[in-house]
Amino acid sequence: MRMNILVTGGCGFIGSNFINYILKKDTTVKIFNIDCLNYCANVSNVNSHPNYKFIKGNITSKDLVLHILNEYSINAIIHFAAQSHVDNSFDNSLQYTTDNVMGTHVLLQASKEYGKIKKFLHFSTDEVYGEVDLEHPGCHEKSLLNPTNPYAATKAAAEFLVRSYYHSFNLPVVIVRCNNVYGPNQYPEKLIPKFIKLLREGKLLTIHGNGSTRRNFIWAEDVSSATELIFHNGVLNEVYNIGTKQEYSVMDVATLLIERMTEDRTINNHVIFVEDRPFNDFRYSVDTTLLKSLGWEEKYTNFIENIESLIETAT
């Protein structure tokens, strides 16, 4: 059966990387990308391809979603679309609920009414697990959810809706929870491209608190390969963590970039410390045993080389 996949948010960072990845590999799939082109999206992130069609629109419109499902005989959905910048969620939390929760609910309801979806993959975040300490080995898929900021809470709420449609309406769903992603075409509100841009402009790097907060950074193409594998081989109603052991603090990242992008390489000359945001989780970590049981292996594991490639290609 030919796959006609509706990708939501495909002009964003993770979605566009996935579309470019899948269209390069699979000549039989057709991708229909719905994106409202929020501030961090860009149509040019997706390469031109005969099996690709862009549709400008908002997933909160059920009429539009149903029209797309019927017009293009969609048989699968990969749902990336979301407001994702944590800092903004503190000031604009109602919009996060509208886009992340209501948007997901509209997609689910439209899929139910349409009745021809064979797979609905929902892309979520490791932040739904909440903060863990340094000794924690990593949250597994059955760990309790404990979101501590509005963004993470909306993603957790969306997950509960997704699973409810499996149990109540037999919608064939699967959920992924992912570490922090980095790579080409990332909007410079996120840590790594933001720091690269600031250093290119000769500006100081803003460090919240003392910079000790830690994140696991996974390369975008590794996320795309994991997503593809889960899409094809993942068990319905299962959750899969997509993660890495490439873990660095904010100061680690700042130091690495300053040493490669400035002449004096003196850390204190290029950073400014500001008050930390409320509830800035110290660390997230996930266990990826289940994903690896499907045969996935992380490929781009050299964090320093990856960072250097981003520095070289940054404009």
Automatic annotation (TrEMBL):
Chain ranges of the NAD(P)-binding domain: 6-301
Protein keywords: Lyase, NAD
Cofactor(s) for this UniProt protein: NAD(+)
Pfam families registered for this protein in UniProt: GDP_Man_Dehyd
Gene Ontology biological process: nucleotide-sugar metabolic process
Cited CDD domains: dTDP_GD_SDR_e
Entry-linked InterPro entries: dTDP_Gluc_deHydtase, NAD(P)-bd_dom, NAD(P)-bd_dom_sf
Annotated SUPFAM superfamilies: NAD(P)-binding Rossmann-fold domains
GO MF terms held by the record: dTDP-glucose 4,6-dehydratase activity
Protein known as: NAD(P)-binding domain-containing protein
